[in-house]
Write a structure and sequence with these properties.
Layout lengths: L1 H16 L3 E3 L11 H7 L3 E4 L12 H9 L3 E4 H4 L1 E6 L4 E6 L6
Parallel strand pairs: 1-2, 2-3
Antiparallel strand pairs: 4-5
Helix pairs in contact: 1-2
Length: about 100
């Protein structure tokens, strides 16, 4: 993951990668969402698809710390269940349907 992210940053740079939303690569595994990639994308919201109590421990705590350290609000299907984003192209609203591990 880190190599692919580095290649994207090298090819497209920050302007080409910036996005309000980031679907976190590889379920938030340790090798995904490197600092340089997150800095280039500069997301406000991160969405992670991971199963509740999955055997791999996704998302990895290190990835969650990186996202939090950059002030990114994080949503994860393991805890939030289904995640819905509704937008009119300028504004957006996120709702969740809590899953079995929900708060």
């Amino acid at each position: 993951m880190a190599a692919a992210e580095a290649e994207l940053v090298a090819r497209l740079g920050s302007p080409g990668l910036q996005s309000t939303f980031l679907i976190v690569p590889h379920h938030g595994s340790r090798s995904s969402s490197t600092f340089s990639f997150l800095k280039a994308v500069h997301p406000r919201e991160a969405l992670i698809s991971a199963g509740w109590r999955n055997r791999f421990g996704f998302p990895h705590a290190e990835v969650m710390r990186r996202l939090a350290g950059m002030g990114v609000r994080t949503w994860c299907t393991a805890n939030d269940g289904a995640i819905q984003i509704v937008t009119d192209g300028k504004n957006y609203h996120i709702t969740v349907c809590k899953g079995p591990g929900g708060k």
